[in-house]
Write a structure and sequence with these properties.
two-stranded antiparallel sheet, 8 strands, 42% helix
């Protein structure tokens, strides 16, 4: 169960969609929003690395003793105490209120990795002449601390989802 799957499954409607998505794992082709994110994620990752020492990550990690609890945080500190998550968006979260699905995703990643906190970085995109461009020179960032209550809830969701898709 990955961070994206668990974050989606945290609501009733999302749970049913997560079951469908798990069974039908057809890859979604990139749309312009996804392409912008894939293009700029490495740029944002370099900023996070330069400022905070978090290395870009592509490893699929499993929680100790829970091989179906999986995550691929966008960054991981050398001592594994910090992770990073990177997003591109059409809406600025200047108030620091990150959408709940991303907060759930981060908390799941913190659970899986055992990290203490996450540098959450986002880059605003804007459209000019039919193309997406970064709206800022650098991403915005906040630190998200562990929320043990949310993590416990997500563990319950993940285990329920795991049972539902036929694994015990």
């Amino acid at each position: 169960m990955t961070a994206t799957q668990v974050a989606k499954a945290a609501t009733s409607a999302g749970f049913e969609q997560a079951v469908i998505d798990y069974i039908d794992d057809t890859q979604i082709p990139d749309n312009p929003y996804m392409a912008f994110g894939r293009e700029y994620e490495p740029v944002i990752a370099r900023t996070v690395h330069t400022k905070y020492g978090i290395l870009p990550n592509e490893w699929l990690i499993s929680a100790e003793g829970l091989p179906h609890h999986l995550a691929t945080p966008d960054g991981l500190s050398p001592d594994h105490t910090m992770i990073s998550e990177i997003k591109t968006t059409g809406k600025d979260w200047a108030d620091g209120v990150i959408p709940i699905q991303y907060r759930r995703q981060v908390q799941w990643q913190l659970h899986v990795t055992g990290a203490e906190a996450c540098f959450f970085a986002w880059m605003l995109r804007e459209e000019r002449d039919g193309a997406f461009l970064p709206a800022w020179f650098e991403p915005s960032m906040i630190v998200m601390e562990r929320d043990e209550e949310m993590i416990a809830s997500l563990v319950t969701v993940a285990d329920k989802l795991w049972e539902r898709v036929g694994h015990e």
